[in-house]
Design brief:
Rossmann fold; 2 domains; six-stranded parallel sheet; 14 strands
Length: about 425
């Protein structure tokens, strides 16, 4: 009887909650977390070990960022630990792991690859007693020039904010200045991530055709269908190579099973085009690197990126990238190492309402220029290989670990060899 009564009370509250706009629900959830989460300690001591935390078992940009940071620190023999946490779901096994790690390393700074609205919930998923007197860094990424209201709650729970690009820094700094928080640009050190042996993973194992030029479009549907703009990439490809059977477009899509409407739009757009392949399997790290290895061109006609892991990874693998010339990718792709695509800024229209802000804009790339770029790379192999070589050199220089090491030094981490 008691549970029946509770259910009778909760159900209408849940229905009322669902009537609120998504932005209001997100803000309310963030404020609730901020009310419950533990506060930070001023000027805590730091030692020589770093704990990198986030959804490290998840195939996402922030999850990959945490994994790459850990790998880079290991390469430089800087003592670090990797901690898997889920801000919105409690796990006993994750809690036990966190308890053991945080109790062993009482003064290790905690670098949370968790965005601002989820920071309070990330802290609530950890043992509170071991968060006291600990330096906490928020590693955040955002894809617009303005922040949504629910991001405001995260600033009070971090000592510093690290971001992967100047584009993200510019979006965060107005609020960070008001909250008296330092913002550091620390690009993902992908040049120092684990390089897997991919020679034994051939095209056939990845479902790729032999003896064709492969144009790769790789994206995560949970990162926003409209922002990643796969329909734009398909349009540009068809403008360039619709009837050319020597060229193949490969759409590598992650988490497709959760976004059936988006997948239906993609499948409708490619219907009747047998030179377009869709791959929705979850690849291992080695297989993913092999995919880039076998690609000839990487296409990223995004509307906005906070960093652009796919274009950056492609460059590191020596592949020419055709990319929208706006947001974070414009910081490392120019016409000497890739092909930037002109654009027009348009008001954000996002059916999921994650990016739906009244004063927000993002890019609409020029698909004719993108098609011309594809043709130039397809029909000029010398240009394609030369651009890829320069891209690789640029990525190795720009995405090393120097910014990360400087950031750690600035927060007081002693660089002992571990």
């Amino acid at each position: 009887m008691f549970f029946d009564g509770v259910s009778t009370l909760v159900q209408p509250l849940h229905q009322l909650w669902r009537l609120l706009p998504p932005s209001s629900r997100r803000y309310g959830l963030a404020r609730l977390g901020a009310f419950l989460a533990p506060s930070i300690t001023s000027n805590p001591y730091t030692d020589s070990t770093v704990i990198i935390a986030g959804e490290v078992s998840r195939a996402s940009g922030l999850g990959e960022g945490a994994r790459v940071m850990h790998q880079a620190l290991e390469k430089h023999h800087i003592s670090s630990q990797l901690l898997d946490i889920s801000p919105y779901s409690f796990s006993f096994s994750q809690y036990r792991e966190a308890y053991q790690l945080l109790s062993e390393y009482l003064y290790a700074p905690l670098i949370l690859h968790i965005n601002a609205p989820q920071i309070p919930y990330a802290l609530l998923s950890l043992p509170r007693r071991f968060l006291k007197h600990r330096k906490i860094i928020g590693y955040w990424a955002w894809e617009l020039e303005v922040l949504p209201k629910d991001w405001e709650v995260g600033f009070q729970f971090v000592h510093e904010i690290w971001v992967p690009s100047q584009f993200v820094a510019n979006a965060i700094k107005p609020w960070a200045n008001k909250k008296q928080k330092i913002v550091r640009v620390v690009p993902h050190p992908i040049a120092d991530r684990i390089a897997h042996t991919v020679q034994n993973i051939d095209r056939a194992l990845l479902g790729l055709p032999e003896n064709k030029i492969i144009i790769l479009v790789s994206f995560n549907l949970s990162s926003s269908f409209v922002r990643k703009n796969p329909l734009g990439a398909i349009l540009a490809f068809l403008k360039a190579c619709e009837h050319d059977r020597s060229v193949c477009l490969v759409l590598k899509i992650t988490y497709s099973e959760y976004y059936r409407e988006d997948m239906a739009k993609i499948m409708s757009a490619i219907q009747g085009h047998d030179n377009i392949i869709v791959n929705t399997s979850l690849l291992s790290a080695a297989e993913n690197q092999a995919l880039f290895h076998h690609a000839d061109i990487v296409l990223s006609l995004h509307r906005s990126e906070g960093f652009g892991l796919v274009p950056a990874e492609a460059m590191l693998c020596g592949k020419p990238v055709v990319s929208t010339d706006w947001s974070a990718t414009a910081e490392f792709i120019d016409d000497t190492c890739g092909i930037p695509v002109n654009y027009n800024l348009i008001p954000v229209q996002d059916s999921r309402e994650v990016y739906q802000l009244s004063n927000a804009y993002w890019a609409e790339p020029d698909y004719d220029i993108a098609a011309q770029a594809i043709n130039k790379l397809v029909f000029n192999s010398y240009y394609r290989f030369a651009l890829g070589d320069v891209a690789c050199k640029r990525a190795r220089e720009q995405f090393d670990s120097q910014s990360l090491i400087k950031g750690l030094s600035a927060i007081g981490v002693v660089m002992n060899k571990g």
